[in-house]
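Write out the 3D structure for:
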Amino acid sequence: MNPNQHTKAAGSATDLYYPRAWAYARESKATPALPQQLADLCAAARLEGYCMVGQSCDSTRRSMIRRPGRRALLRAVRNGQIDDVFVTRLSQLSSKRSRLRHILALFQRKNVRIHTTEIDLRYDLYRHGLDGVLL
């Protein structure tokens, strides 16, 4: 299947559209909670009718620049392979406001929706001083 095609229900008379989702989790250190967090994000996405096309996680300190899981997520966004991203809260993507603003701008340019499962998205944007970033 072409990675730029959306997933459709197999054999469906109406060709239902299933948005493609990616789950991303991060913890400051490797803990048993990390795989569970990722599983919970995937379950939340599936419960809402999303087709999971990817998932990734990182267990790094805040100051670490290298986050292979986040890089994989952003690569999928840039390549148009996903429609929605599921995270527990925005700080999973970045704790630095400038970096978070850059990531959210990329999501907006690529029409990727973001879902937060622990904190209301509007409140989370407000907490980070980014409530005016998304249109």
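Residues 1-13 have pLDDT under 50 and may be disordered.
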